[in-house]
Amino acid sequence: MDFSKVTNGILQDMKVWEPKLVLLPEDTITKKRNSQNRTIKQILGHMIDSVSNNTHRIIHLQYQVSPFSFPNYATNGNNDRWISIQDYQNENWENLIQHWKYSHIHFIHVIGNVNEEKLENQWISESEYGNISLRDMITDFLRHFRLHLSEIQELIDE
Questions:
Q1: For the residues 139-154, what does the mean pLDDT come to?
Q2: Model-level pTM?
């Protein structure tokens, strides 16, 4: 399966966004909040959590019995707990940007090594969507990535 649309999209967006993020003033990244009450630093941290969790799902879905139950960090407010516990709000901004960048570069590497015979393996999602195949999870990642970049852009434009 060719996931180049996803991987190229992530790479292209990171090339645009990394220098943009670096130049943002402290007030913009720490004080403006979106509808979920997240700052830009917290949104970027959530993106790191998301790519980390999805990396783990991709790995588990290739060796566990399908359908596989993997904790969904995004339900019941858990993603906000992750943001709070890791204290992204007070993380060094340059380090946070680099973590965001390199965790996504690694994710692209992991996608490039997926066993195609495992693409229909499923994760039992606790969401309204039901079970999600490895193929669908990878394919949908770019949409989710861009959703959060658009949230950051909205805060920049305020």
A1: 97
A2: 0.94
